[in-house]
Each structure stands twice: as structure tokens, then as C-alpha cells.
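One record is given unchanged without comment:
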Amino acid sequence: MKNQDLNIDFERIKELISLFEQKKNSGEIKKYKEENTKKDFILPLFEALRWDVYSRIEKNSAKAKNPLLMNEKENLRGFD
């Protein structure tokens, strides 16, 4: 599989790296909290990698694939 087949936004990744370096060199990165790091760097990186970071539907979760896991509490009745 070639890089172009993955549809990755390499230019956006370069921009994020540059932005991170600027923030790091200015010392501003030390003031970053977890949520700001996620918003400014992590989620944009995942978007550039073409990950669906905003979907709230767990299409491939174990619970969706296995009906026994969907109602774990019911399956464990009597074991309280």
C-alpha cells in the first residue's frame, strides 16, 4: 500500500509539527493543559490521518459485534 492510497494529509501533519515546535520554543507548551493539547494537536493529527474522531457511534466495538456483551449486567445476574 502506498502513502497516497491512505489519503493522509501530510501537509497538515507538517503544519502541526511546526505549530508544536513554535509553542515548545516559546515556552507556551508548558502552559498547555490536557484538553488544549487534545484540541490543538491530538485530534487534528488523527483527522490528518483520516480517523473519524468525532463519530459517537461505535460501529466496530466488541459490544456491537457480540450480543452477549451488550447486556453484561443481565448476563451476570445472580453473581452479585
Notes: The first helix runs from residue 3 to 6. The chain has six helices and no strands. Residues 16 and 44 are 8 Å apart (CA to CA). Helices lie at 3-6, 10-26, 34-48, 62-65, 67-70, 72-75.
